[in-house]
Amino acid sequence: MLEIKNLHAGIDGNEILKGINLTIKKGEIHAIMGPNGSGKSTLAKVLAGHPSYEVTKGEVLFEGKNLLELAPDERAREGIFMAFQYPIEVPGVSNAQFLRLAYNEKRKHLGEEELDPLEFKDLLKERAKVVEMDASFMSRSVNEGFSGGEKKRNEILQMAVLEPKLAVLDETDSGLDIDALRIVAGGVNQLHNPENAVILVTHYQRLLDYIVPQFVHVLANGRIAKEGGKELALELEEKGYDWLKTAADTGTLGVQAS
Amino acid sequence: MSTVEILSKQEYKYGFVTDIESDVIPRGLTEDTIRLIAAKKNEPDWMLEFRLKAYRHWLTMTEPTHWPNISYPKIDYQDVIYYSAPKQKAVKASLDEVDPELLKTFEKLGIPLTEQKQLAGVAVDAIFDSVSVATTYKEKLKKHGVIFCSFTEAIKDYPDLIKKYLGSVVPTNDNFFAALNSAVFSDGSFCFIPKGVRCPMELSTYFRINNSESGQFERTLIVAEEGAYVSYLEGCTAPKFDKNQLHAAVVELVALDDAQIKYSTVQNWYAGDENGVGGIYNFVTKRGKCAGKNSKISWTQVETGSAITWKYPSCILQGDNSIGEFYSVALTNHAQQADTGTKMIHLGKNTRSTIISKGIAAGKSNNSYRGLVKVMPKAENARNYTQCDSMLIGSNCGANTFPYIEVMNNSSNVEHEASTSKISEEQLFYLQQRGISQEDAVSLIINGFCKDVFLQLPMEFAVEATRLLGMKLEGSVG
User: Which residues of A touch B440 (CB under 8 A)?
Assistant: First the structure.
């Protein structure tokens, strides 16, 4: 589904990703872990097409298409979704209005009929159950005045409505209390199926107790420093990241030479 | 793409010209011009006196070019045509006798006038250059005692009402453009809602400038007697010309005890091209007087057109407990300049006013809010709340806020809030990441920004306004 080959990218002339290789297949859940500043969030934003980041080298194929040629909205309509670490507020635009517009853009892209507000309301009500959100959220302005937990639940609600092929969750667990974490993770688990894939970008192992990845990739200094199964996350929890950082800097791990 | 910049290539779909034979007077302005206009309209002497008085005063006045935050080449008032009317039969017994070319024009603008196609629930007075060409639902309204007709007819048929109220809110010597209008105005709409009547339908006037050389000078007068209610809509468009046309209108509203007037405008005059060539110069004086106690006047405007906008719909809150409201969205793109706002003059006790202004500037345009809140000594417990928000799209435009607050009563309470924001790249990226195109994302953000104002518009107008803003900003972000 997704093939990242030797990806180099940065912002304002500073290279952050220094040669990432990653392949993701349908039905898989991958965790991208790593210390602060290792490039985890940059990778998520580059995949989504954030305009501030510049790709200097490498290739990203999504279902065989060159992803890097597409505008962010085109990528989204192709089925890439990113849950934001800091969801943005859009004053004066109701959640329902925003979600319907996004949903209908996707339907148009698929050559399907758009839903009118009433039809969409029913769909929204159904999908909102995934993250236990009630109707009052739908008439409120997008993320305006939402608590941290509500914002993250709202991200997953959008994922539930848009049903992406590939969901990239950028630090979705940050700032969540244990109840909210359970709801958010539960939502992601309900939405995951053999036809789609999930990338979890996270600093902590905690999230992976709820959403269990098959693959864990550890980023350090813009490269994948170590890869493994879910047990790698536990190892990191125990040892921290420092040993990896040192190893990545001195090149002693030998993974991802580029 | 890492900067939000201006490309802008919007289409103005009302830019066509109607090919019709017109009765046009020679350009220039003298007392004779005024006598000629009055004669063309068979006006009584008192009306001519009103005009001449205004004209003589106008000669002593100077154009307000210093205080507004706008600049334009000097207007040669002797180079303007002050009267241009499509040639057709003087008396129209029914709408079917209106020139088909005119009916077609208005139909194309989305304003069908013929009996079969008339807009349900909205009575329309259609004004083409200098004259009213048709008014719909006149008879139906008359059954409710509501008078809705062209100004020309009103002078003839209701002289006492006109004599009583014309110039009672905006005197002939009020300001340069109002004086000019008072001297040469050629038509407009008159609405009168008698005591206790709630006008059964929306009243509206649609203004169309067609002639490239002529100005449009129209007057609107709305009187709501005790306990009456009316909602009035105004729309305007003009063809694309390389030259600028002058539009100087006067609108007067009078609300007696317990009366309510709701006045909504969607202004979409031709704005000129990307380089600022052509477009309407829109110098308008709009003022309402809450003459009676518990009366209420509410202005809602969506200003998207015109090369220059100079306009301050105001309320004189004379009656105790009266309420004035001003809700405004002003959008400027390309080389447009707008200096617009309101005046709330508190005279009576417990008078209240609300001002919500949303300015959006794109391209290399300049968008200013200018507002006065004045509380006079006898206005015990007067209250005002003002909120002025500006949004900038790109980095070549400007937004300004000029609030004037004069308070002469200690028991009053005046609040002013202002903000300036830019559409952020993060906001756009967020919406785009959900599959919404960049243009739709801008339009969504703008509509959210303007929501408090759009909520005040009648349903059909709100839809139109939303669409219009999207269209106006098309291509403005790239």
Answer: 101, 105
